[in-house]
Amino acid sequence: MQLGRSYRRCLAGLVLGLASLGSAAQEPALYVYSTIDALLAGVYEGELTVAQLGAKGNFGIGTYNRLDGEMVVHDGKFYHVRADGSVRVAAPSDRTPLAYVLPFVPTLTVALGPSTSLAAIEALADQQLGNKNMFYAIEIKGQFSGISTRAIPAQSRPYQPLAEVSTSQSVFTRDAVAGTLVGIRSPALSKGISVPGYHWHFISDDLSFGGHVLGTGLARGVLRLAQVRRLEVELPLNEDFAKADQEKDRAAELRKVESDRHDKP
Fold it and tell me: What gap in Å lies between CA 190 and CA 235, rounded to an integer?
């Protein structure tokens, strides 16, 4: 039996479409545990362990239970930057209330010259983005100048909103340091789930310094990025998350938390 020409075209299109869907399913996904709005509301405990998170990716950012410092995930290592300035490798049993990780498969590498501020670094990164409505994982490795980072000390119940406890943050500075910016750039459409725009953490090459980046300059470096169009979002099952008010617009609270950011220490 011969198939009509139009039918054969439709069948070919269906096969190509299914092949395309199969290819998309193999693309790395940004795995998101919990939401930024939950953290802003004071949800500082989660069930997910570092070991479980490591199965989702080798690159990313987050924090640890009780809001105990900053998480920096680079080359498959989970670093824990605490409010006393210490840096250690997290234990597999450590847990997180919020994290963003993915298998880092960069598709673009660009050498960067001097930049006087974090805003200038971001402007250079923006030039490499083909579609600002996508997510991006961005690594910038190099020599940094005038860098400042922060970490928030572990909290105790009853947990207060992030905008209140962020005032207790510890700020660390270095005049010059070699290391890596680990960043997630989220589009505006992600508000509530992620921080729209750039969110940077840092780990030094000697693993003695890091945290959430407030400001920095760049002497020289190399940028690598991966565009991400797939998300995998997993939500905590605990009572804190269930009771958190996530109907409230927390954009102003997020701006307050991020307002401590500055270009130089």
Answer: 15
Structure tokens at 30: 């940004």
Burial 150-159 (b: 16+ CB within 10 A, else e): bbbbebeeeb
Domains of the chain by start residue, with CATH: 27-258 (3.30.1330.80)
Q: What is the Cβ-side half-sphere exposure of residue 218, based on CA atoms within 13 angstroms? A: 25
Q: Tell which residue, 262, 259, 245, 261, has the closest CA to residue 40.
A: 245
**CA 184, CA 39: separation in Å to the nearest integer?**
17
The answer to whether residues 87 and 208 touch, using CB atoms and an 8 Å cutoff, is yes
For residue 87, what are its two tokens?
């840096």
- Tell me the pTM: 0.89
Read off the pLDDT of residues 10-44 as tens digits, 9 standing for 90 and up: 444 444 444 444 445 578 999 999 999 999 999 99
Name residues whose C-beta falls within 8 Å of residue 148's C-beta, 6 or more positions apart in sequence: 171, 172, 173, 213, 214, 215, 216, 262, 264, 265
